[in-house]
Amino acid sequence: MPDVFKERIIKHLKHADYAPAKLGQLAKALGVSSRDYPQFKQAFDQLRQAGRVVIGAGSLVSLPPMAGLIIGTFRANPRGFGFVTPLEPNSHGDLFIPPGEIGQAMSGDMVAAKVTKKARRGPETRFRGTIVDVLERAGNKLVGTLIKHAEGWLVQPDGTSFIDPVSVDDVTAKGARENDKVVVEILAYPTERYLARAVITKVLGRAGGYQAETNSIIEQYHLLTEFDQSCIEQARRAATKFDPTEPGKREDITEKVVVTIDPPDAKDFDDAISLEKDRRGRWVLGIHIADVSNFVRPDTPLDDEAKNRGNSVYLPGRTLPMLPEILSNGICSLQPDQKRFVKSAYITYDAEANILTRRFANSLICSTQRLTYEQADKALKGRTKGIKTDVVKLLKNMETLSRTIEARRKKAGMIHLDLPENELVMDKSGRVVDVRPADQGYPHTMIEMFMVEANEAVASLLDRLNVEFIRRIHPEPDVLSMKNLAQLIRAIGFALPRMPDRFAIQDLLAAARGSDCSLAVNMAVLRSFEKAQYAPLHIGHYALASTHYCHFTSPIRRYADLLIHRAIEHYLQKGTAEAKRSAAAQDLSETGKHLTFTEQRAEDAEKELKTVMILQMLTDHVGDQLDCVVSGLASFGLFVKSQRYGVEGLIRLPDLGPDKWRFDAKTQSITGEHTGRSIRLGQAMKVRIISVNVPARQLNVAPAEENVTPKKKETAKKSKKTRRPKRTGRRR
Prior knowledge:
- Helix 5 packs parallel to helix 7, helix 9 (389-412) packs across helix 10 and helix 12 runs antiparallel to helix 13 (518-528).
- The protein has a five-stranded antiparallel β-sheet with strand order 5-4-3-6-7, with no helix packed on it. Strands 8-9-10-12-11 form a five-stranded mixed beta barrel.
- Residues 706-732 have low confidence and may be disordered.
- With 732 residues, the protein is α+β, with helices and mostly antiparallel strands.
- The protein has 16 helices and 33 strands.
């Protein structure tokens, strides 16, 4: 239970603006309630006993000083140096490793580094060191593209984790050809003089092809594809035994008007909606969720596999389901005109959408119609062709209730970020030919509101029963993050109090809506927040302004929801005592960590593959112009985000034009010393594509011609000689 507090304490103490404070002040800065303080104190005491935090003069809390030997994770930079991020954070942050001191380390390795030099730069103390040992390799397999060099065969790794190429022998053994995407196993790790040496273990196909690039991401992220035979057999037995004509003690609501609304390519329909008025004229919302727990029992091969996967993974054009398709797209999916087992949450509202009662049941339903979000949106706007009359009426009632719920939740402080999403347009071969904005019609918000209400209702029930369960938590942002956000937002050009509350953030987002700065403002708010995660800790969900929250509505694709369904089943069948006993038998903290990891892994894999596919398309558009917004600034250049394609490009400082450009972190701007021209976060900018490096996931751009005309010309200084290129088999 204290693990979440440990992470929050360490993160806060690592913050660049943290000033040592007393324990009570630290708890206040982290927004710890009096109810949660004992767990916070327990977490702090454990950190102190482990030497991860110290209490110094004046009872002030801080991280320990930099030790003489650092154990941590190494990350390399293309320019030959790197950094070691300590396993146990210290008060000075990462350790700089200069060129020539890297040894045999590769990005991601766990290393031991000796601190060799300490120097002061202004008020800061900076350390540098040398890697003396590699304690644990990040892995011995890489995915990359096979290239023919004058002196031998090389594999250029995909992504940004591994920078240098790897030499390979005997490429004919696996039938590999130049420009193939391959998986290699490292035989000898790099040294200061030599590249790593590896052998090809798998050929994925031609680089740039849809299947090869998709399989590359699957290999890179260690995603699971096939189910073993025991899981398939268990799923088949469950499907064979399924008999909707014998629902047992389930409530038969097959005559109710029930609708599912999902994306057009979805097959795993796990939620359906009904909405009626009771005898007193009050709305009764029914949220009906596929009863996966009826088919996937604890401690079975299929349960173990679902837990290991954690969630389904949705890649462009391909889904890696958490459960075999005979379940996920079959008997669990709430298909139209098919009787299905569900768990139902009924919520009764007054005229202002305040909750009056909640009730839960095992039910048998039959979906009246399956709609896409676009179909539902058209129906709400009066275009009802192909939609049943009673479904149209249901949709209009759903919109009425949803807007009232949304107003209530916003009044309570719910924060909604406006982060535009895009959809890939692919040809038959899987190649991206265009990108278009994703549908943002109101039915998306409508379904989201109902799912949030159901999740909150279930969590409230389990809390009332005093049952331990996996929650979906979103901690309140700490004081330092809010101060930094306020400073950044003022630099962009908007007003925000020094210590903004949720309502000030709501006002900010409303003020930025529709402006060029909208993306930058929304991204700044997002980055100032903690990440939502799974844990049994009762600290609520900040963005949703919810005290009780869990995930209940997607058990086909999320294992966390399946666990919640089992807790509800114990309550419905055997009462509170059995629900408590079942929860006590689980290690919810470790399960929560694992599910948080698998969720993030799935998001990262989807994002990277989309980036790869868009960059591949842009290789045919070098020289074209893009409408962008400045999304990030740094000492070496600025990042701009394409409004159409959603990918970021890098403009290096020399490409801004002949001037001496300086980055000011405080004002979040880059200014030309001679021209006086200033570029700020959130500024709209036209750029042209200079080059695309798909393996490195890099888009290089420069301001369009009309954007770079300086007020005053200056002769550019001669650049330094480039370092002599590395020879095959040798390492810089």
